[in-house]
Amino acid sequence: MAEEAISTAILTVATIIAALVLVNAMYPSLYSASGSILSMNNRAADRIKTDLTVLAEWYPPGHPANDIALEAWVKNTGITTITETDLGHVDLFLYTGNGMSARIPAGDWTYELLNGDGDANWDPTETMHLTIHYDPSGSSPGTWRLRIALPDGVYAEDSFTYAG
Known about the structure:
Elements: H1 2-49, E1 52-58, E2 68-76, H2 84-87, E3 91-95, E4 101-104, E5 109-114, E6 127-134, E7 142-149, E8 155-162
């Protein structure tokens, strides 16, 4: 009977030690995984709260052959304020009529925030007026698309007709 008690005690201690080793081995990876999941969840929540709508595009008739000054108006229809820093990392793309696409470099477009509170951030309900300079050489008239993409991946696009 004493032998059974000693054997049971040894097995119990061995089980407890094995459980502690397993928890110590698994805890860091579980903690790291939960941090990654929380980070991804926060990013997804930010993207859900951010939305844009391209309201209109216009380019002046009779523009020089190598430069059109395309104007566009984009509204912040989400509930997130887009900071001045984030505005410096916005990407603009033009998909032209012949299947070509172009990323418009930051120096070739400017923006102005309309109907706002006077700060440099793009707040909800404010409209951004973009002026984009683009050389249409090699592009054909037809349906073009303008896409504006924020640093977090949220984008808006709209099609318009370019007559040349």
